[in-house]
Amino acid sequence: MGRLAGLLAAGLWPGMLRAGEAVQGSAGDIVFAAPNDFHHAEEACDPWFEALFRQIGGHAGLDFCLGVGDLAHRGQRTSFETIGRLAQLTRVPFYPVAGNHDCDVTGDTSLFAEVFPGRLNYSFGYRGWQFVALDSTAGTAWKDTRVTPATLTWLDSTLKTLAPGQPTILFTHFPLAAPAKYCVLNAEEVLARFVPFNLRLVLTGHHHARTEATRGTYDLVTNVCCSRVAPNHDGSKVKGYWLCRGSAGGRVTREFVPFAFPGVS
């Protein structure tokens, strides 16, 4: 694992340096949803996603909703616009990142960025929690990919503006750890940058299956997809998303919430 392996061997891991710091009073309670891999393909998908976002919006105390990549099945503008419009049914902010299928039309993230300006590489804070959203795409490539130098440069610059002791959550489309398939080849270059930070959770998609890896004090997870047209990669039929809760002490828990379109078993 390169640089990260050396840090782990030395007894360092992302989150460890800050794990003992008290964040009581500096971070508040939060509730957010994290669906991934929508794969909106056609107008027939609209009722499916209307029901999905209405279900997400029905969770008590929901603060915002993430969108962990592959909003579109074929990278079409209409798919981006539809997901963006239907996400408003949650009545909370929507924070998406791009996936490889979101690059299918142009070969890059330019069309995604037109519809979702400022939503490639970005960070935001909420009640003392820090969220880092990374564009882990490499055009339309779906395996053996690397987080680009441009994204790593952005990350280096952005981390300088964040508070190391505040609880931090990272989300991006491509997995950053095994046992998930399609993990980016330079995942350690990303994770090593978080060693000085109070990293609590890494949410990813792309591999349509529930996987979990633990690195010191935090988990890196993937989940089944939320798509009407794309299958899960583990052969399961259930679709769903994470419902996550952060506490004032910097602890975050997640619950898998199944989604079933009305009338479809």
Question: What's a concise summary of this model?
Answer:
The chain is α/β, with parallel strands linked by helices. The chain has helices at residues 3-9, 46-57, 77-87, 110-115, 149-159, 187-191; strands spanning 30-34, 64-68, 94-97, 122-126, 129-134, 167-172, 198-203, 211-215, 218-222, 239-246, 252-259.
The helicity comes to 10-25%
SS-derived structural category: alpha/beta
Distance between the termini: 42 Å
Number of strands: 11
In the CATH hierarchy, what is the superfamily? Metallo-dependent phosphatases
Question: What would your notes on this structure say?
Answer:
With 265 residues, this protein is of the alpha/beta class. It has a single domain (3-259), classed as Purple Acid Phosphatase, chain A, domain 2 (4-Layer Sandwich). The chain contains 6 helices and 11 strands. The chain has helices at residues 3-9, 46-57, 77-87, 110-115, 149-159, 187-191; strands at residues 30-34, 64-68, 94-97, 122-126, 129-134, 167-172, 198-203, 211-215, 218-222, 239-246, 252-259. The strands form 2 sheets. Strands 4-5-6-7-9-8 form a 6-stranded mixed beta sheet, with helices on one face. It has a 5-stranded mixed beta sheet with strand order 3-2-1-10-11. A hairpin with a 5-residue loop joins strand 10 (239-246) and strand 11. Helix 2 packs parallel to helix 3. The chain is globular and about 45 Å long. The N and C termini lie far apart (42 Å).
